[in-house]
Amino acid sequence: MKKVLYKTNQNNPAVRAYKEAVENGKRNQHVLPRGNEWVVKRADSKSESQVFGTQQEATSYAESIAQNQGTAVFVHGSDGRIRDVRNY
Question: How many CB atoms lie within 10 A of CB 27?
Fold first, then answer.
């Protein structure tokens, strides 16, 4: 199958908005359980940003990052499932 490349107008506001949304999605913060600790991890990162003793501390830290970047925080429960999403 031949790959087809489409040329897009990079100055188009819709194209810029889409690209910005994709980039923001890569910067979303996740609060995840790890044993008895809670970690904050960026969506596109392999390593944790910080490790905390409680979910509340981790969530506060993740919220401060998301507020500065205009992204979202995904708070996971102790079972690993997403239980809350906070957009900034």
Answer: 16
Q: Which residues pair with 40 in a beta bridge?
A: 31, 50
Higher pLDDT, 48 or 21: 48
pLDDT at 3: 62
Closest CA to 57 of 77, 82, 39: 39
**Average pLDDT, whole number, for the chain?**
86
What's phi and psi for 85, nearest 5 deg?
-125, 130
Tell me how far apart the 2 most distant CA atoms of the chain are, in Å.
51
Please state, in angstroms and rounded to a whole number, the distance separating the CA atoms of residues 30 and 59.
9
Start-to-end C-alpha separation, the chain: 41
Global pTM? 0.75
Tokens read off for 22: 């994709």
CA distance 86 to 63: 8
**Does 44 have pLDDT greater than 80?**
yes
Return the bridge partners of 65, or none: none
